[in-house]
UniProtKB/TrEMBL annotation:
SUPFAM superfamilies: DNA breaking-rejoining enzymes. Keywords: DNA-binding. GO terms for biological process: DNA integration. GO terms for molecular function: DNA binding. This is Core-binding (CB) domain-containing protein. It comes from Vagococcus carniphilus.
Length: 107
């Protein structure tokens, strides 16, 4: 992993941990419950876009997966948490007249 990726993960995990401390007074990462993580995602929806929230959730999921692999915890509580639906940007396409004008312009 690059230094930038590690730095980004560190920052995103610190956001998560700070939230858990402030909202639930939970400083032990192994005692966090699934409902608290869902609340975290819901609270973020008030001010953040779904793509940003999904990136934070992705990092939290990777963190919990790492903790299971390294045997810090027995069960991955974020496994069943789904990502948020994201808005899809529609591309504006050319209509028939615009295509016809472009063809005539170049030929």
């Amino acid at each position: 992993m690059s230094k930038k990726t590690i730095s980004s993960y560190d920052y995103q995990i610190s956001i998560f941990i700070n939230y858990m401390e402030l909202e639930f007074n939970e400083t032990n990462i192994t005692k966090i419950k699934k409902v608290q993580i869902k609340t975290y995602a819901l609270d973020l929806q008030e001010t953040k876009k779904s793509t940003y929230i999904n990136q934070l959730l992705k990092t939290v999921k990777l963190f919990y997966k790492y903790m299971v692999v390294e045997e810090y915890i027995d069960k991955n509580i974020v496994e069943g948490i789904s990502y948020l639906k994201t808005e899809k940007t529609l591309l504006n396409t050319f209509n028939d007249q615009e295509v016809f004008r472009m063809i005539n312009y170049y030929f």
